[in-house]
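Input.
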Amino acid sequence: MKSKIDLSKFDNSCYHPGKNIIVRGLWYMVNAFIFSSSFPFYAPKRFLLKLFGAKIGKGVVIKPYVYIKYPWKLMVGDYCWIGEDVRIDNLDDVKIGSHVCISQRAYLLCGNHNYKSKTFDLIIQKIIIEDGVWVGAGSIVLPGSHLKANAVLMAGCVFSGIAEEDGIYKGNPALKYKTRSS
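Output.
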């Protein structure tokens, strides 16, 4: 059977990560030795993210083993929790509001490939997470998603699209289950 894609023709040259190779290399080392490790201290992590261009609010908790692709494409509001083993693959901007909990092993994914294209072109889209959202453990938030205020993704969700304010979502694909009450 003949392949519908030809990876030998893949060309990612139109994508620009936003910083030069030296800055990306330095970030790669900081990410590997500080963020993607058991390093337990939050204040130095906030400082390093800011140093590399992230906009980080006060009181942000970043647990061990967190992976952040490009800090200069990250904005996190006040008093957010980013749990263990969270992966923020932010090829595009990720904006996280205040008082957001991103639970362990959640994955924010800004990039994918066009399966309809023979050359498997890269597609990137932003992710917006508004105030008070809870992204449950093991959930995946797909490119272009917008989670409105106080939305909840239950554990293990695979979410794409717009989550309604106060909506609670479950499953794969994540569907609205009910509305969050006070």
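The chain has a mean pLDDT of 96.
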